[in-house]
Amino acid sequence: MTFKLKIIYNLLEIKFLKFLFKNNISKIQKIKWNYFLKKINQSPFYQSFIGGSFRNFPVLEKKDFLNNFDLINTKSIKYSDAVKVALKAENTRDFKPSIKGITVGLSTGTSGNKSVFLASENERAYWVAAVIDRVIGWSFKKRKIAFFLRANSNLYESVNSKLIDFNFFDLLIPNEINLKKLQALNPTILVAQTSMLLVIADALINKGLKINPEKIISIAEVLSKEDKHYLEKIFSKKIHQVYQCNEGFLAHTCEKGNLHFNEDLLIIEKEYIDKEKKRFFPIITDLNRTTQPVIRYKLDDIIHEKLDCQCQLKSTAIEMIEGRKDDVLKLLNINGEEVIVFPDFMRRAIVFSDDNIVNYSLTQVNENELNLFVAGEIQYFEKAKNSILEILKKLKVSNIIINYNKKLDHKKGTKLRRIKNEFKNSN
After folding, report:
1. For residue 399, what are the contacts with CB-CB under 8 A and spacing of at least 6?
2. Residue 227 and residue 306: Cα distance in Å, rounded?
3. Are 246 and 219 a contacting pair, CB within 8 Å?
4. How far is residue 10's CA from residue 32's CA, in Å, rounded to a whole number?
5. Helix (H) or strand (E) segment spanning residue 344
6. What is the DSSP code string of 182-237?
7. Is 278 exposed, middle or buried (CB count within 10 Å of its CB: 0-12, 13-18, 19+)?
8. Of the options 3.40.50, 3.30.1560, 2.40.50, 3.30.300, the CATH number for the domain spanning 328-421
9. Are 193 and 416 contacting, i.e. CB atoms less than 8 angstroms apart?
10. Which 3 state secondary structure label does DSSP give 131?
């Protein structure tokens, strides 16, 4: 079967299962899980668990997953070999090399730790089918896609066809060059991180860029409510989101504009981290990845669950992706006790202090020391600073230093994190 036929087959399967079970997610998951178990018996790490129940499979975090890379994958690919191929691709910017016909991808993530993923041709075809079904949509009209990312991959290039003209934009190339290329392409679909969409929005306002994409999709970074509203105002379009990481295509935007987990493709467990059971760490099982099985993999993204989405999907809705576990601020109160401050509290304190604040960053750099950047006049910084101090005062954190940062705390080519904790001694 050719690659394109595999895409069509998988697309029909995805749609058929949804129609057959009328979004009865548990039935779809049960069928796919039983089939999945038959496909991973070549994984030395999981062989002893296959005969038991789902709950007997261990929960793995990133460190455990990478430490057991050689045993988890079903193709006897060594981590060291995969990293060599991926690093060579990074250095040469040629992202076509593979091992044993398996695509190798590399991500440094927001934590700076290397993470390697593997995908076979069948898995690439399934991913393309899912993306067509959930994100791009089917059309007989040729569409041009502009895709901004730090690194390309055979996985992303798989979208290319007679009807889809895929164009990779390397984030490590200067913005001026990318903007000229973007103008020449004038894409039908624009896919980029929040930070790059903000650059493009600025170019539309101030640099004479003239593009009018039919669809705009935010990827890779947290899309805050204020950034979303600002971008929708500039582009005059709804900003869609895709939640994807090395561990799978996790969520897409529904017709009401809310992210939903792809629970017909995944099993999502929730490890709640607050008393209200509003925030949770997702523990994911990808029911289609058999080359490098992803089973009960715990992400460190902090998810806000949404309970009132009015769309027809039965899957878990996401209010927002608040940030990573490592983005939580850990400060000391007047009694010397550690106080946990979730990123969203700081984000709200900053943006609600003045309607003119749209660009900012806050970084914990020491035990009780923060660096704050706010674009625009100094009064915006002062308002944001006072608002933060007011919030912290309620938490009995009063011995805090907030420094004035002259520029956004963001390195080009990395994910934008507006609120982050870089105090290395925090636990």
Report:
1. 332, 334, 368
2. 19
3. no
4. 13
5. helix 343-351
6. HHHH--SEEEE-HHHHHHHHHHHHHS------SEEEE-SS---HHHHHHHHHHHTS
7. middle
8. 3.30.300
9. yes
10. helix
pTM surpassing 0.70?
Answer: yes
> For residue 111, which amino acid is it?
S
Beta 189-192 vs 215-218: how paired, if at all?
Answer: parallel
Helix and strand totals (H; E) in the chain: 12, 21
Domain ranges of the chain: 1-324, 328-421
Total Cβ atoms within 10 A of residue 318: 22
Q: Which residues contact 262 (CB under 8 A, 6 or more apart)?
A: 130, 134, 249, 250, 251, 252, 315
d(CA 216, CA 238): 7
Angle in degrees, 0-180, between the axes of helices 3-21 and 121-131, rounded to the nearest 10: 50
Q: Which CATH superfamily is domain 1-324 in?
A: ANL, N-terminal domain (3.40.50.12780)
- pLDDT tens string, the chain, 427 residues long: the values are 788 888 899 999 998 888 887 778 899 999 999 999 999 999 999 999 998 999 999 999 988 999 999 999 999 999 999 988 888 877 777 667 688 889 888 765 444 456 788 999 999 899 989 999 999 888 888 999 999 977 666 666 667 778 888 898 988 788 899 999 999 999 999 999 888 999 999 999 999 999 999 999 998 888 888 889 999 999 999 999 999 887 789 999 999 989 999 999 999 999 998 888 889 999 999 999 999 999 999 998 999 999 999 998 889 999 988 878 878 899 988 888 888 888 888 888 998 898 889 889 999 999 899 999 999 999 999 999 999 999 898 888 988 999 999 999 888 767 788 898 988 654 4
Residue with tokens 């994958």: 73
